[in-house]
Amino acid sequence: MDIEKNILAYLENIKKSNINAFISCDEDYVMAQVSAVKKGIEEKRFTSKIVGMPIAIKDNICTKGLKTTCASKMLKDYVPSYSATVIERLIKAGAIIIGKTNMDEFAMGSTTENSIFGATKNPHNNEYVSGGSSGGSCAAVAANLAVAALGSDTGGSIRQPAGYCGVVGIKPTYGTVSRYGLIAYASSLEQVGPIATNVTDCVNVLEVISGRDKKDSTTVNRSNLAFSKALTLGIKGFKIGVPRQYIEDADEEVKNAILETAKNFEKLGAVVEYFDLHATDYAVAAYYIIACAEASSNLSRFDGVRYGYRTDKYDSLDEMYKKTRSEGFLDETKRRILLGTFVLSEGYYDAYYMKAMKAKAVIKEEFDRVFKQYDLILAPTSPIKASKIGELIKDSVKMYLSDVCTVATNLAGLPAIAMPCAKDSNNVPIGMQLIADRFNEHKMIQAAYTFEKERAIYE
Ligand code: GLN
Asked: Pocket residues for ligand 1 (CB within 6 Å)?
């Protein structure tokens, strides 16, 4: 393969594309990497399976010398002086960072509409959203603007857009991938993860970015990081559980797609059962309280002094802070900072934040019980079909509620893989996810690969 020609073709695709998947793409930066990779190949320095692979990066992951905006006015011109650990690992493995992708501001949202750069259009039907918040990364892969991408998943932001864009996305077990250099939204919930058109590429990228990092003390020293070995192991004897609550109230087309997928897993040799996941009742509420509480603290650093944007005119320090933050953040982000500050304030802390933390513990315990019974959980990536651009952004609560199938996974620190399982009546993909117990990625990879290989038979 001629890496240079290949990368130039991708750059051309990006230039021609009209789906607004990228925030920036610096050709000089890309071509400098191509030269470095060619040299590395000559010197036989690379051993990974992703040498020369063009990878798009969500714009909340720091890239040294390359703008990292979080799709926010606050960081519009921010150029990090260091790279995230995941970026360093990709570069060391010989991958090529092809550009930075669109997202909801600070990863807050489910449609990529909450971006100062505007929504990313769904590559399958441009009138619809690509999902969010990693919509740019998923759409870029789906539209052949990159072979793979990185996203971040705090409450579903890799899986839900992967579903809507018809690509594969993995949210790893909490502690598997370093968050060093990921601009924090809700630190206790989020993980960086890979996105690709197929399970194999996705797993190959995951192998490169995973593993203990001394710059992130929450990373775990795992022994079983050779995920690609699981690909071909099959699923004979697997027990898969489908939570009734995740399909009962789902859109009819989503429900049918999951029922059909469950049948296909049975044909592939798994036992499928339906069960009650009571955690569903309070997962969204607990998630939004915890995520907003952490966001209010994490985003306090954007004050016009230490980072990014500062307002033009002010008469006092206090006014400078107020105007900077009022002008620098979009409404949704401000709403969450306010909510988070409220639930952490004296007199309300016990009633909201502590209660949410208790709910989180209960959710984790319930999953622990469920995984004594099942190898995997099969669920939709979203209970609703992809919305038309401009629709869901009008109703924040409706948008929050649409995260019901993904947020509990993050509260419990579980891994999950998302991939398409059908198309809706608007020609937009419908996603399914397989959730595994902590540190059991191999099981979901086995099942996803088997499903991907056999899917053609059922379509
Ligand atoms: N939609 C969820 C939220 O807005 C999840 C976002 C994410 O995973 N980054 O918080």
From this structure: 107-110, 133, 152-157, 185, 291, 403
